[in-house]
Amino acid sequence: MSVQTTTQRPASDQEPPGGLLHRVSGWAMRRAGLAVFLWVLALVAVTVGSTLVGSEYRNDNSLPGTDSQQVIDTFREHQPKASTDSIQIVLYDADGLSPQRARIGEMLTVIGKLPHVAGVANPFTSQGSVSQDGRTAYATVALDVAAADMPAEDVRAIIHKSQEIAKDGLQVELGGDLVRGAQESSGGASEGVGILAALVILVFLFGSLLAASLPLLTAVFAVGSTLGLLVLASRLFTVPSYTAPVMMLVGLGVGIDYALLIFSRYRSELLQGADRAEAGRKALDTAGRSVMFAGCTVVIALLGLLALGLGSLQGVALGVTLTVLMTMLATVTLLPALLTLFGKRIERSVRKHAAKSRRTPGDGWRKLATLVQRGPWIPLVLGTVALVALCLPALDMRLGFADSGTDDPAKTSRKAYDLLAKGFGPGFNGPLIVVSEGDQAAANALGRTLAADPGIAAVTPPQLMPDGKVATVMAFPRSAPQDKATSELVQRLRDTTLPALETQTKATYLVGGATAAADDFAGAVSKRLPIFVLVVVGLSALLLMAVFRSVLIPLKAALLNLLSIGASLGVITLVFQQGWFGAQPGPIEAFVPVMIFAIVFGLSMDYEVFLVSRIHEEWRRTGDAQNAVREGLAHTGSVITAAAAIMIVVFGAFLLSPDRMLKQFGLGLAVAVLLDALLIRCVIVPAVLRLLGTRAWWLPRSLERVLPKIALEKD
């Protein structure tokens, strides 16, 4: 099947004399000083505004229609004034706690007078609060506000006052989600390490501190402005507390990446003899268009999260989407202005660095492309097998939510978790809350049935709510909250045990609690994932088809992107679920896979568009498919590698974060970018295009007529 090159070349005289991108970037270059001033003003304004207003992040973990959500709704309906927010003070003495009763009582009295403390249950007068060996006990601190309204400094005050008596063999640790949140580091180290490493790579690439600083400045301005806007947006919309670090992670990587792609094309045009103005125009008309298109694919992938219908992810999707949009705006306004202001010095440094280079730019990549094209089947098969092998562990991925059991062993929340598990059993840290809607006989039958289950260690007597219509039973599993056996217990109770009991008693039973909620979230994600994947992959493929006028290019891109995502999820499973490299074993955060899918799929399109658009440019110019691949890789290989290296160090730096979720994000994104940039774009894609030849640019005439034309290059 042959394709005439003339059918691929849109007539340049049909294009408008400069689109929106050309006008915006042109204005920024003509009014460079004003453009930079406006960006500085915007950054200062949103930073000051957000500082004065303050954030109001809220985690929306509601799952309408699930058993765990119905349990929460039942509590709100039948016990509306009750608060389920509390802090646990765990006490341990190897010689027994009885001699310490007086000191403990005095401490609990002090805690009861602290702000937002509604009451403190003394373990020595509360049934079941002291372990059988008398060495471990816990006191529950009830609060008068919801968790979202509890100031972190007040939680820290409870921690400090409680631990003041920790001496003479008495160990005092505190547990609960509020304690975990109050312990979290304020961050900053991960971002700082990533930025410093990115600067080193850019200096090595361009040989100039000034040239290396421009992509970094662009990213910092974009991320800084978006962070302020996110704080303001949290006052109006439901934005989860973990959105800011995720936004910074993606924003820094994407911001540096996009600016680097445009700056590299600008540098290339200067070395080919263009003056500064012409180099800027050409860079924005080619790489700038590719960046805009790539950014749109990232936005589509992120907004695809809305198809999941999960409130906790919608806020993150909107926050990160805003980051990408601000990054795109900074890339086509702030960066051109900086190139204009520092153009002379940049040109001198570019030419000086090029004069010192002993190699012709792109020679190594031409040799690699030639080597791959000589025997394309070998790298294609080996590369694909490697990706598939890395994908396999993801098939055994178990989703859940991190709890104190996956915290750093040095944290008080983890110590409290371990002490409770040792003193009361592993299931004590994650009790199941079973609700009975029926008469007292139905509630008593529920207690007997749960006590007889081999997976349950103990149950509490049924407790009637004030209105007498609903009773609750707490069941303590024999296994830890994050163990697979606990999830299997929840499934068995819901599918077999309780339905059979409902038939006998005519009552309604619901299983809730943290473990059940994690299982419900994982089930909701799994159920809606196919729709999400179809939306993201379908829309992205249509965009690629419109740009490159090809059916096979989008198909190839979608399949390879899915392989890189699967491989990154496989690595996450090996490290964080199986405990490789010393990581704390546990389930994968339930929303991490879909977030990684959305972000990685979008970012993978960056390299796809940048590489294939340059190949397409050469193909349109020469009509030689093999030469187009070689030249396209020669012009983009070093840039893609450098951009990938920057993303890898920025994402990988988040492995230094104390937050398990951010560690999983950082590792997953870093691995995906590594595989995508080095293995897929630089080896597998050239091999596939060599095998396809001119067929790579085939598009049926029926689609040619209906697809809009989106040009990434201007003649």
What does this protein look like?
InterPro entries: MMPL_dom (IPR004869), Mycobact_MmpL (IPR050545), SSD (IPR000731). The chain is an alpha+beta fold and 715 residues long. The protein has 3 domains: 86-144 and 151-185, Alpha-Beta Plaits (2-Layer Sandwich), CATH 3.30.70.1320; 194-353 and 365-402 and 519-700, Up-down Bundle (Multidrug efflux transporter AcrB transmembrane fold); 431-512, Multidrug efflux transporter AcrB pore domain (Alpha-Beta Plaits, 2-Layer Sandwich), CATH 3.30.70. The chain is 64% helix and 7% strand. It has helices at residues 20-30, 32-53, 67-78, 101-112, 152-163, 177-183, 189-206, 209-233, 243-271, 276-303, 311-341, 343-356, 363-374, 377-391, 412-424, 440-452, 484-505, 514-548, 552-577, 592-622, 625-652, 660-692, 701-706, and strands at 86-92, 117-120, 136-143, 171-175, 399-400, 432-437, 456-459, 463-464, 470-477, 508-512, 588-589. Strands 6, 7, 8, 9 and 10 form a 5-stranded antiparallel β-sheet that branches. A hairpin with a 5-residue loop joins β8 and β9 (470-477). α10 (276-303) packs antiparallel against α11 (311-341). The chain starts with 19 loop residues before the first helix and ends in a 9-residue tail after the last helix. Mean pLDDT is 83; it is low at 1-17.
